[in-house]
């Protein structure tokens, strides 16, 4: 039987007719996992809006706002001598015991410059740069500043040499964690 609570849904609309592009989206997903012998479900739902305003053919300003709610439920214990975590193969329905719930409104402002020329396998010439500021002042309480610069240099006929510099800083009560190797793509 169908259960809306256990479904993964994404609804999106984009309008590219005018100079200012905008995107609207809504999402709902539920992920199951096992933690300390307990079957746990994270339910994530929310929506967002993105606006893009180009200055010229290669440079644009992007701003977005997302509202998200993450609720965690404990669905009970799962004991098996053959299972060490992961997907159980069983369909778990119904409501469990609520463990936690977090809400956030995340705003971002980004300046993007992209004149990269693409081929079948990726960019071959040009540059891509992004400077972004984002944060949540309602809910999670954090702020992040990130920069990413990539330069693609064609070599011979079929090769491209890429140079990348990226970095970021996050602050606040729930600041983001950056892993070795730079910021997310």
Describe the structure.
- The chain is mainly β and 185 residues long.
- It has two domains: 1-109, no CATH class; 115-185, no CATH class.
- The chain is 0% helix and 66% strand.
- It has no helices and nine strands.
- It is globular.
**Beta strand count:** 9
Helix content: under 10%
Please mark out the parts with pLDDT under 50 across 5 or more consecutive residues, or reply none: 84-89
Radius of gyration: 21 Å
Mean pLDDT: 86
Q: What general outline do the C-alpha atoms trace?
A: globular
Strand percentage, roughly? over 45%
- Determine the number of helices (DSSP H or I, runs of at least 4 residues): 0
**Largest sheet data:** 9 strands, antiparallel
Order of helices and strands: EEEEEEEEE
- Quote the distance from N terminus to C terminus: 38 Å
Provide the structure class.
Answer: mainly beta
The total tally of domains equals: 2
């Amino acid at each position: 039987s169908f259960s809306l609570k256990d479904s993964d849904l994404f609804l999106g609309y984009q309008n590219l007719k005018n100079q200012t592009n905008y995107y609207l989206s809504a999402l709902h997903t539920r992920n199951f996992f096992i933690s300390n012998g307990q079957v746990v479900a994270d339910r994530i739902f929310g929506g967002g809006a993105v606006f893009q305003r180009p200055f010229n053919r290669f440079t644009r300003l992007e701003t977005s706002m997302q509202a998200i709610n993450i609720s965690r439920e404990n669905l009970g214990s799962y004991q098996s001598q053959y299972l060490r975590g992961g997907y159980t193969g069983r369909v778990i329905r119904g409501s469990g015991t609520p463990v936690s719930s977090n809400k956030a409104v995340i705003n971002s402002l980004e300046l993007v410059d992209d004149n990269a020329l693409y081929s079948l396998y990726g960019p071959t010439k040009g540059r891509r740069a992004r400077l972004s500021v984002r944060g949540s002042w309602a809910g999670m309480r954090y702020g992040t500043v990130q920069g990413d610069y990539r330069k693609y240099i064609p070599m011979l006929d079929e090769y491209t040499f890429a140079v990348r510099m990226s970095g970021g800083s996050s602050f606040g009560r729930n600041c983001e964690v950056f892993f070795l190797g730079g910021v997310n793509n």
